[in-house]
Amino acid sequence: MAAAGRTGPPLGGRCSGVRPTQAARASVGAAGASSAGRGEASVNLTFRHYDHETAPATVDDVIVPLYLATHPQAATDPFYSVERFTERVEGYMRSPGFGMCAAFDEDKPVGLAFGYALPENARWWRSLQPHDPELTIETGTRTFAINEIMTHPDHQRRHVARDTHRELLATRREERATLLVDEANTPAVTAYRRWGYRKVGTIKPFPDSPTFAAMILPLPPGGHESFDG
Q1: Residue ranges of the N-acetyltransferase domain (predicted)?
Q2: What is the pTM of this model?
Q3: What would the pLDDT profile of 109-123 be if each residue is shown by its tens digit?
């Protein structure tokens, strides 16, 4: 589940777009946060965007290496194993509404965020407590669900998670974003709240998964190119 820069989720082929960025953009200012709070200045990153057709080519060389670097529990917890993670990722990628942004420092992948647009009658909300029928209505264009936000440990406290999250949402046209986070991961929860997310309940997405806090972020109407999350 999504957790900004947590430590404990091929460059070839087509990608949907490449966007270079300068360190410490004026549009971000000092209000941004990495998973560990206000850290060092942003590094110079190049962002590459992928969709459900182009993202599968990145699984072995980008997604799994970042996952292993940021999830030490993958070696001991079956729910977090690489096999289970890869199965989930491949399922997300089958959605036409899938989107992914990867951050590169030169040619090294150092950050990643991906998710998909929730379809009508989405399973995402089925275990939400407390249940809120109005909040859980989906149309296929209402909610972008973020599955993972990852930052390589060598690049944490440099706003990589914040910038990758912002770049991903800048391409979306949904009304809101949602993510799940382990409430024990205090740095991630703090970052998400600073980015504008609010908790709406708890969700246990799989029988053998932890129970996560479900958080929602309203997105600007009419396009998100200026989104400052």
Answers
A1: 45-220
A2: 0.81
A3: 999 999 999 999 999
